[in-house]
Design brief:
4% of the residues lie in helices and 45% in strands. By secondary structure, the protein is mostly beta strands. Strand 4 and strand 5 form a beta hairpin.
Length: 127
């Protein structure tokens, strides 16, 4: 299983970016898909999740109303649309396949329970 993340870049505060995560090596629709981020000097944190069946979404409070995650199972691609970006959103963003179909169980899992991670894509929000 491989995940390829892309879409990061430099954007001004208030701007938008869309991250993509393309999966290969498996069906691509039976596991939850999550986005994490890690800012310089900080621990990796969970940002969003979209479940396998049904596509239910969850977000960390700091991005609610600004970020939207979605998935296109036919394309084996998960997206993270980021709007109204703030300097504090600056981080390397990683996609990961959840250990479970549902988000609740996946979000409660330790990092070493995730068997597939994208390589990370850098998002810099600065004027």
């Amino acid at each position: 299983v491989q995940l390829q993340a892309s879409g990061g870049g430099l954007v001004q505060p208030g701007g938008s970016l869309r991250l993509s995560c393309v999966a290969s090596g498996y069906a691509g629709d039976e596991h939850a898909m999550l986005w994490f981020r890690q800012a310089p000097g900080k621990e990796r944190e969970w940002v969003s999740c979209v479940s396998g069946p049904g596509g239910t979404t969850y977000y960390v409070d700091s991005v609610k109303g600004r970020f939207t995650t979605s998935r296109d199972n036919a394309k084996k691609t998960t997206y993270l649309q980021m709007n109204s970006l703030k300097p504090e959103d600056t981080a390397v963003y990683y996609c990961a396949r959840g250990p479970y179909p549902g988000c609740t169980s996946s979000m409660d899992s330790p990092f070493d329970a995730f068997d597939s991670w994208g390589q990370g894509t850098l998002v810099t929000v600065s004027s």
